[in-house]
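Protein record
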Amino acid sequence: MVRETGFPRVRNVDNGIHFIAGLPRSGSTLLAAILRQNPRFCAGMTSPVGAMYMALETAMSRRNETSVFIDDAQRRAVLRGIFVSYYEKLHREKVVFDTNRGWCTKLPALGQLFPSARVICCVRSISWIMDSVERLVRRNAFELSGMFGFEASGTVYTRVNRIAASDGLVGYALDALREAFYGEDAQRLILIEYQALTRAPGDTLRILYEMLGQPYFDHDFENVEYEAENFDFALGARGLHTVRRRVEWAERETVLPPELFDRFSGDMFWRRPEASVRNVPTIQFSN
C-alpha cells in the first residue's frame, strides 16, 4: 500500500473519478455534455490532465538522469497528485469524468491510482467516423485543419489515410481501444455505441448510471449544449466540439467515395462475439 503525505484528501478523487476515452466523432463530447447536466458531476471535452500526466511520466523516466532519485511510490504519488491539484479547487464535491483518448493505454496505472474508476469508451463504425471528419473539413472549406498538418493540397484519400495511421486521429484511438479491450484490465471498460447514445439516450444513461453505481439524474435530452469555439478555431476545425441542443439520430448518405467507405467495414471488432474474450460490457441499440 502506498502511504500518501502532503496531499489533501479529496472525496471526488478518492471515490468518484472516471474516465472517458474511445474513438473520435463517436459521442464523447455529447456524453460529457449530458453528464454535466447533473450538478454532482464534472465532465467536459479533453482536459489538460492527460497531457500533463504523460509529460510527467516522461520526466520521471530513465530519459532524465535524475530519475534515479524517484522510486515507484513517489511516481504514483506525483501522478495521482495531478488529478488532486487540477480538480480539487473547483470540483471538490463532484464526481469527475476526465476525457482523453490516451487513457485506454494507461489502464494498469489507473487501476492502481483509482481502483474504483471505470473507463467509458464511446465507439462507432469507423467508416462513419471517417465520414464525420470529412464532413467537418468540408463545412470549414476556407480553413486548413491542424488534424492534417494544415496541408493545403490534400484529397479525401490523403486525409483518410493520414488519420487512419497509427499516429493519426482515428488510428491511434483505435489501437488504444484494442489494447484496452484485449488487455488484462478490460473489466474496467464500458463501451457505449454512438447509435445507442443518440437513438435511446435515456435508456443508455440509465444503464451507465447503474454500472457506475450512481443514483440516476433526470437529464433533459432536448436541451443539451456544449461548445469549445476557441479550441476548435485554433485547430482550424470549427464545430469539432459543438453539441446540438437535441440528442437525436440523423440518417444520411456518406460523402466518402464508396471504396473508401467500404475499406473500414470490418473494423467494429467489439461487435464480434469471438472478440470479446474479456466480456467487456457494451451498450448497443437494438430495434
User: Anything to note?
Assistant: The longest strand covers residues 17-22.
